[in-house]
Amino acid sequence: MRSGRQKYNVRASSLPPAVTNGDSRYVMGMGGTFVEVTPPSRIVHVEIFDVDWTGGETRVTTELTEAGGVTTMTMTVRYSSEAAREAALTTGMTSRMEMSYARLDALLAA
């Protein structure tokens, strides 16, 4: 995935296309649509991958809550089926997501 900042208008409803290959053996592309944007606390979007291994759209809800000067981000991902969820979990994506969030924590702490 290319690093750097990307700007886009969430009110335009479409997610910008994303392509990543990271340290994996294949390239993965995805796109989607914003369903709900409630600044500054909630974003809901659906995403679909170029190679539709999830069996349809995946719905992602991101919520930001603040308590005692600390902001907590909660992301809920709903797959089209239990089988799609299980397939996603076997990809190793959870450890890669955790690495990304650790990098975000470090960046915000700087």
How do the helices and strands line up, and which of them pair or pack?
Elements lengths: L13 E7 L7 E11 L3 E8 L8 E10 L2 E9 L3 H8 L3 H17 L1
Antiparallel strand pairs: 1-2, 2-3, 3-4, 4-5
Characterise this structure.
There is one protein chain. With 110 residues, this protein is of the alpha+beta class. It has a single domain (10-105), classed as Alpha-D-Glucose-1,6-Bisphosphate, Chain A, domain 4 (2-Layer Sandwich), CATH 3.30.530. Helices cover 23% and strands 41% of the residues. It contains two helices and five strands; from the N terminus they run E-E-E-E-E-H-H. The protein has a five-stranded antiparallel sheet with strand order 1-2-3-4-5, with no helix packed on it. The longest helix is centred in the last third of the chain and has 17 residues, at 93-109.
- Strand and helix order: EEEEEHH
Residues in β-strands, percent: 35-45%
CATH topology: Alpha-D-Glucose-1,6-Bisphosphate, Chain A, domain 4
Main β-sheet, in a few words? 5 strands, antiparallel
Q: What Rg is obtained from the alpha carbons, in whole angstroms?
A: 15 Å
Tally of distinct domains = 1
Number of helices: 2
Indicate the structural class. alpha+beta
Q: What's the N-to-C terminus distance?
A: 23 Å
CATH superfamily: START domain
In a nutshell, what does this entry contain?
With 110 residues, this protein is of the alpha+beta class. The protein has a single domain (10-105), classed as Alpha-D-Glucose-1,6-Bisphosphate, Chain A, domain 4, CATH 3.30.530.20.
